[in-house]
Specification:
Blueprint (H helix, E strand, L loop, with lengths): L6 E5 L4 E5 L7 E4 L2 H22 L16
Antiparallel strand pairs: 1-2, 2-3
């Protein structure tokens, strides 16, 4: 099963790591470490999917895949 990709990057503006799921509009989370940001975005993803399903909003197919980069 292919899942939605998660991007993680350091935000100078927020002074923390940001994890986002580009396929799920506005689905992102912050963390003091990359791992924490990913844990938080997984929680946000579940909430996003539950809301989409309960309101009849379509869930997009995965089209973005994670990119690995160093800071």
């Amino acid at each position: 099963m292919i899942d939605h990709g998660i991007n993680v990057f350091w935000s100078e503006e927020d002074e923390c790591y940001v994890a986002d799921i580009p396929d799920l509009k506005y689905c992102s989370a912050l963390g003091s470490t990359p791992e924490e940001a990913v844990r938080q975005v997984v929680v946000a993803k579940q909430a996003w999917l539950e809301t989409a399903r309960s309101t009849g909003k379509p869930v997009p197919e995965p089209s973005h895949f994670p990119q690995v980069s160093s800071r």
